[in-house]
């Protein structure tokens, strides 16, 4: 789960990100830095309304009541058992 989210975040926030680059250094103008910061900020502010993988942030009604709750997008799974007494999910991740 953690690795999948890191890959999603690496592709969501940095504009022009390429995995496996040769770690070259670059010099950026002030405008380039401000453009990149604006791009990242727009993406960050859109996170509550986006789905990262099979999970989404926000309340069960589609809103962001508390803004930090992680929701499981259940329609991606063949079978799931939800036990409300101890808040556990037992899923079959086959599509």
TrEMBL record:
GO terms for cellular component: lysosomal membrane; plasma membrane. Residues 1-94 form the Mucolipin extracytosolic domain. GO terms for molecular function: NAADP-sensitive calcium-release channel activity. It holds the Pfam family MCLN_ECD. This is MCLN3 protein.
């Amino acid at each position: 789960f953690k690795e999948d989210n890191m890959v999603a975040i690496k592709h969501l926030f940095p504009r022009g990100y390429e995995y496996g680059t040769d770690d070259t250094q670059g010099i950026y103008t002030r405008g380039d830095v401000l453009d990149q910061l604006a791009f990242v900020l727009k993406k960050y502010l859109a996170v509550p309304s986006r789905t990262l993988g099979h999970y989404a942030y926000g309340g069960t009604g589609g809103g962001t009541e508390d803004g930090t709750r992680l929701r499981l997008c259940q329609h991606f799974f063949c079978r799931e058992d939800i036990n409300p007494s101890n808040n556990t999910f037992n899923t079959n991740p086959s599509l």
